């Protein structure tokens, strides 16, 4: 339980790392002063494929501690010291860290069978994750992988010492998978299996198709046949069969992670299905549901965005007590 708390805190710090002001950097340095926090931060950075971020943050924290010690010492002795002392302290801190790491590696005892057995629960995890309408949630798993759920989505986690399995039952999820070659990460979507080791990808499970986009690393998809995707590629599967492969126009993050819904040359019924993850009422379509549309809509106000979509298509949006209805304006 305590480990999960540290991982959640580390994920939050990592997410805000590039936006920290001076006060935030001081707070992060204080948090990283504890060894278990450093371990958690390193795991999260590794899961996101940026271990250098953890090393930089930990080094900064060590340097701040050295600077604080020097300032306190100067204040106590009331004697000015040459400025070169801070540089020696910085160099010493790096040497100390290197020596400490080497010492810890050499001094680690051979794990006993009892210790190994106690480690097994850390490899095992079974849980259910679900988001409600208009809610996006994130969860760091025991292996350090991060899962982000879009609105109205559901998945289950089944990790053991041999493999890491997830079942996406409904909706959309973005995965940042921790690199662990000995335990492949497998996502099941109906009859489709997505195999990865350490990568970042998005799965959008719709009523009649599944769309997979790869943002980092390599993904192997087992459907009617095996498909291998690399960073910047995506695939559309219809009824668990290959339909098309495409290139991503933006390979940073899926639009929904930043509160947007991007629709490109897509039938109306699929656009409405995506909107429905953020609407408290269902949408009834009384027009051509296969009409194609393109647009970018804010998910912060989904009802207003649905109205905008209707207007752009020359449709009328009617709101009833139990549903929305899209009708032809000329009706």
How would you summarize this macromolecular structure in one to three sentences?
This protein is of the alpha+beta class and 331 residues long. Helix content is 36%, strand content 33%. The strands form three sheets. Strands 1, 2, 3, 4, 5, 6, 7, 8, 9, 10, 11, 12 and 13 form a 13-stranded mixed β-sheet that branches. A three-stranded mixed β-sheet has the order 15-18-17, covered by helices on one side.
Q: Which CATH class of the largest domain? A: Mainly Beta
Judging by the overall fold, what is the CATH architecture of the largest domain? Sandwich
Radius of gyration: 25 Å
Number of separate structural domains: 3
Find the CATH topology of the largest domain: Jelly Rolls
Helices and strands, in order, run as HHHHHHEEEEEEEEEEEEEEHEEHEE
Give the overall silhouette: globular
**Which blocks of ≥5 consecutive residues have pLDDT under 50?**
79-108, 114-119
Distance between the termini: 59 Å
């Amino acid at each position: 339980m305590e480990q999960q708390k540290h991982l959640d805190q580390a994920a939050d710090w990592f997410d805000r790392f590039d936006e920290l002001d001076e006060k935030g950097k001081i707070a992060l340095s204080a948090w990283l002063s504890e060894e278990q926090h450093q371990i958690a931060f390193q795991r999260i950075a590794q899961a996101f494929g940026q271990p250098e971020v953890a090393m930089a943050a930990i080094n900064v924290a060590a340097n701040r501690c050295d600077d604080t010690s020097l300032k306190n010492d100067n204040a106590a002795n009331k004697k000015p010291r040459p400025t070169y002392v801070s540089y020696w302290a910085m160099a010493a801190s790096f040497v100390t860290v290197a020596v400490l790491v080497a010492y810890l590696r050499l001094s680690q005892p051979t794990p006993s069978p009892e210790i190994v057995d106690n480690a097994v629960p850390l490899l095992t995890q079974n849980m259910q994750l679900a988001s409600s309408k208009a809610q996006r949630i994130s969860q760091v798993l025991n292996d350090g992988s991060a899962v982000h759920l879009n609105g109205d989505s559901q998945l289950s986690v089944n990790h053991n010492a041999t493999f890491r399995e997830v079942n996406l039952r409904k909706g959309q999820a973005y995965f940042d998978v921790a690199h662990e070659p000995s335990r492949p990460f497998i996502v099941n979507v109906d009859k489709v299996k997505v195999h990865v080791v350490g990568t970042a990808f998005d799965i959008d499970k719709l009523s009649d198709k599944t769309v997979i986009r790869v943002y980092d690393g390599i993904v192997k998809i087992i459907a009617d046949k095996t498909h291998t995707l690399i960073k910047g590629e995506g695939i559309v599967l219809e009824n668990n069969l290959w339909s098309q492969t495409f290139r991503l126009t933006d390979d940073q993050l899926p639009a929904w992670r930043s509160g947007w819904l991007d629709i490109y040359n897509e039938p109306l019924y699929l656009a409405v299905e995506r909107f429905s993850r953020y609407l408290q009422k269902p949408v009834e379509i009384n027009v051509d549901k296969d009409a194609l549309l393109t647009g970018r809509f804010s998910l912060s106000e989904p009802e207003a965005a649905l109205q905008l979509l209707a207007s752009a298509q020359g449709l009328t949006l009617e709101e009833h007590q139990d549903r929305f209805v899209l009708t032809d304006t000329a009706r």
